[in-house]
Amino acid sequence: MPENSKFFFENPAFFFQLDFKGKVCYTESMTKKYAFLFPGQGSQFVGMGKDLAENFREAKDVFDEVDDTLNQKLSDLMFSGDIDTLTQTQNAQPAIMAVSIATWKVLKSKCDIDEKIACMAGHSLGEYSALCASGALTLHQTTLLLKARAEAMHEAAEQNKGGMLALIGGSIEQAQEIANKSGCFIANDNCSGQIVLSGRLADLTQAKIAAEQMGLKRVIPLAVSGAFHSPLMQPAQEKLAIALQKTTFSAPVIPVYFNVLAGIENNAAKFGELLLKQLTNTVRWRETLQNMTNTEFVECGPGKVLSGLVKRTLPDTKTWDTCNLESLKAFLQTKQ
């Protein structure tokens, strides 16, 4: 019995059907396939990934490789560090990716689901996790790109001061009207009734006034350091482009939906261009989910943010999260 699979056998009723490799054998007929979703910044929390590292060699290997690539003990910060330090862009981005890929590696090692995966997508930085999981990038490449991305975004935010504002209860049409009036930009079309604007601080103030006059349910300033996914991030494009030019993408084994397309791109030669566009353009998440037809959704990584967006966009669709050991077990147990 693999040492890192101990918890599978603590309950006699759990995983009573395993093949000789310790993977789950399917006994049920499955009509739907899975869409794997990878979370973005804001999903981080202290302690994330620790239970995976303690129970699975596959997960520990991911954290060790990310630590070695960054030449820092990011895993210590993730497992027992300070939340303010973890939330800093340069730490949060590779940390969230590391937990997402560690979770993905565990799922792959314990469950034969290859033929049941329809597609993948990641929200903002999660797009890098999706490309890694799909085989388009190695873990080493992904870590280096996110390091460059985080540094570039931080510098752009310092150069062009701005922020983000969540509009709750309005439509995409109302959000666009508010953006046009205030000089802001639609950064995230997350789901019906949740749209995020980016802009300069003075413009966000005008957007808040316009939204309140329009009668939106709530207007929430976000605790972020810059106007992400807007033209104010153009300086970040220039710096990230240097890192992307050094990166060779492979053809993905699993189709990936890109944020700026809300659709699939199979030509690996175009991936770098799409990642650059993502920095200054809208994350079209609502449309992406709507385009993933006849799937059940699995949020692969820390937090439950994306699972919540699925429920608001496609309320009749089955959704799973894998934000900790217990939720991961719950998903795998259905595959016994």
Quick gist of this model?
The protein is an alpha/beta fold. Helix content is 46%, strand content 14%.
Report on this model:
- This protein has 336 residues and is an alpha/beta fold.
- The chain folds into two domains: 3-158 and 230-333, Malonyl-Coenzyme A Acyl Carrier Protein, domain 2; 161-221, Malonyl-CoA ACP transacylase, ACP-binding (Alpha-Beta Plaits), CATH 3.30.70.250.
- Helix content is 46%, strand content 14%.
- It is built from 14 helices and ten strands.
- The chain has helices spanning 50-55, 57-70, 74-80, 83-87, 89-110, 126-133, 139-159, 172-182, 201-214, 234-245, 271-280, 285-291, 305-313, 325-333, and strands at 33-38, 117-122, 163-168, 185-191, 194-199, 218-221, 256-258, 263-264, 295-299, 319-321.
- A six-stranded mixed sheet has the order 8-7-2-1-9-10, sandwiched between helices.
- A hairpin with a 2-residue loop joins strand 4 (185-191) and strand 5 (194-199).
- Helix 2 (57-70) runs antiparallel to helix 5.
